[in-house]
Amino acid sequence: MNFLTVEKKRQLAWKLTTKTLPREAKVPGLFGSRMFPFCLPLEHAGLNLYSEIREEVLELFARLGIVWHTSALPGLPTNHLCSSQVLCVNSLAPFLHRAEALAEFLRPFFPDLARILPVEEDRFVAFEFIDPDNLLGEVPKLGIARHRGAGNTSIDAAILYETIDGDRVMLFIEWKYSESYPSVYKRFRTDGTDRVEPYRHLFHGPLTPFNLELAGRIEEYMYEPYYQAMRQQLLATQYREFGSPHVDQVRLVHVAVTQNHGLRAVTSPRFREFGSDFYETWKKLLIEPEDFILIPTEELFRSFPIERHRELEPWFGYMKSRYAFLR
Fold first, then answer.
1. Nearest to residue 255, comparing CAs of 149, 152, 153, 172?
2. Is this model's pTM higher than 0.90 or not?
3. Which of 3, 132, 224, 236 fits a disulfide with 260 by CB distance 3.0 to 4.6 angstroms?
4. What does the pLDDT look like over 141-161, one tens digit per residue?
5. Which ranges in 96-191 belong to alpha helices (H)?
6. What pairing do the DSSP bridges indicate for beta strands 29-31 and 34-36?
7. pLDDT by residue (tens digit) across 258-278?
8. Rounded Cα gap, residues 202 and 184, in angstroms
9. Could you count the other beta carbons within 10 Å of the beta carbon of residue 197?
10. Secondary structure (3-state) at 168
11. Torsional class of 254: left (φ above 0), alpha (ψ -120 to 50), beta (otherwise)
């Protein structure tokens, strides 16, 4: 039984027993063209978000034009309870205005962190971040304008901090939950468009983060999740050099559930000689392996000193109740 199947059952159990959902939200919901018990009814999709962040997050996504993944109704998140985007927002939105708490959430994994800096207006987390200057030169897939969260390389969450030495570090965070990927070559879209060409000059350029002597053919990266991670790593390198506001370092961070073994499959045939785990092979492909950091979701929550942030206890309890792997 794969991890997604397990999580569907766990989320259904939470849905049927939690006191945070009204009775009318506990029935099956329409997803695509079918009804599923692990989905909320469409009109209750907003309840996929923790109650204390719901109003602000919905307003924020609407105002900034951020796309909710697999959403069926305008202005609402997906109704699928196993959404990684929803997990990311539920995990980080309580820290939008809590710099000290966010610092303690992250510091076990970033010991050089001195203080969190605003990354977008007065907020300490930017969801579905895209760099304003389009440093990857991507052509929008959804009309003329670029959209946060769809049609170009978006970062699930961006966080900016200052180190104890005074450097500024940007974290590009990709939040994984129940994903797994087949070994499918992704170079060409259904319309024949070549996914490789927009990134080839950066992949082979002087700022490439990749060890081209070890794996120097971009075509070998055209399997998910390598393709996504390649674009994120290229963006991190470009942003470090040319991004605004100026930063001294950009670290690509993946937050992933340890129990999801399917996520770690090595889908690129070429990279199987480097190991049997996606994250193990990924670090080997980089010139500077420390530019990539893997954080187990369970350890992120386990390390948080919730006793020093009592105002967040209801949120912490909600997360552990809903996401069983955090217990």
1. 172
2. yes
3. 3
4. 767 789 999 989 999 999 999
5. 99-106
6. antiparallel
7. 999 999 999 999 999 999 999
8. 23
9. 10
10. strand
11. beta
